[in-house]
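step 4 of 6: structure.
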Amino acid sequence: MIPTIRYLGRFVIEYSIWSKGVALLFYKTMYWSIVGPFKGKAAHRQSIFQQMVFVGINSIVIVFFVDLFTGIVLGMQSAYLLKKMGAELYISSLVSISLCRELSPVLTALVVAGRAGSAIAAELGTMKVTEQIEALETMAINPIRFLAVPRFLALVVMLPALTIVGDLAGIFGGFLVGTRSLNINPDLYMQITFKYLELKDIYTGLLKAVIFGVIIALVACYEGLMTKGGAEGVGRATTRSVVISFILIIAADCLVTALFYFINW
Amino acid sequence: MSIKICHGQTILSLRNVTKVFQGRKVIDDVSFDVKCGETFVIMGCSGSGKSTLLRHMTGAIRPDQGSILIKGKDIAQISQEELDDVRKSFGMSFQYSALLDSLTIQENVALPLREHTRLADEIIDIIIKMKLSLVGLRGFENYYPSEISGGMRKRAGLARAIALDPDIVFYDEPTSGLDPVVGGITDKLIKDLSVKLMITSVVVTHDLNSAFKIADRIAMVHQGKLVAIGTPEEIKHSISPYVQQFIHGSPTGPIDLFKEQKLSIEQ
């Protein structure tokens, strides 16, 4: 009993320190993103674009395929049920709405957390253990402005952009199932898609993507900058960043979906 | 290059600096002054606290007690912004160079210039060429740190440290891991910088040869305490048993690793 309590206590203390650290990082990142440019201390445009290419452009292919296959699976899965009701026609709107509101933002975020979040944690962690972060500080260069802000901005901008790619890929997947397997007229399929898909369905998805972008950037940068203890520490930081991002993305998705549901958005 | 005028004033001064890590005093009431233009060497065994002392002087660690005055400003007390201002007036050469892996040698040396000055790119290019030829690395501008040898990385790190024409340069183990020839070149470089450019050097090392070659004054640290301080001649003839044991590298004497080990186990 006592070891359990001790374990729980340590868990609570560790994670309250962790949350405080991440909140502080969020504050500093926002400060340098918003106030920094007015003080003549903006993040480098070049490194923001570099990160955007790495996080965004290089993830297009994998995001496209993940969402395409999800669209196909979702199409077939709902066709199975809707056929029984004689309403196969409506798989188009079911696929498009569930993708835009829910699946595309979440899957894109998970892919990016696994691909880019881990790379960010590993890169910053290696910089930490090889004294590169300390060297930046000694040169009076703020590591948060120099390293965290470009990654944060890149993720917050590119994740919604990737989500749109995912939306399109998923709808295309559903379209393939609908037109090839269920023999729905392609024109009719698209008409039904856009009849029920509202603009707010896309907005809510993109808002989620922004929130997930913030989560991935903060967790990866925090774990990277807090790395201790050589190569083993870098490995641990990378794993932790992916695991924590995954959990927080799903939890945040649950919260935000509940919020939208109850305010009827 | 700016010309500095030195009249032997104190540029860096530590007063009763104490730091405790997890109940252990790693820096114990250390005080000394470094004069403008001199080469000051801090010597000691591994784990004696000499690197920790250096990190106090660069502002990476704040002391629990005492003050660290750099050009009259106490960096133990000032805000982060003021500290950053002070930091622009010194450079640091790290033990493992700490160059940014993602940038070329040229971009690494240019980094402090681009961050802290509004110089045009052409002028920055000229300064980089000058600094790199000073450390003998002309022609390696477009290499990445992973593509050159450890000795070259260290010299590139030195070029970055002097990019802003600092008043003080801190060196962490400048000759460790280098072959004797490159080590000798590095020693000469440190000496040249301080003689020709009037740069004050603070060097942390356990390389005796190098210490006696370059130092104007030497301080010896043991278990976070200053045990001796003086010119190389004074240190050589010091009666302190710590210094004698360190200089002769004898396994027995007042510096006893096994006794310390036993003590820390008992604690």
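step 5 of 6: annotate
 - Residues 94-165 of chain B form one domain.
 - Chain B has two domains: 10-89+167-266, 94-165.
step 6 of 6: archive
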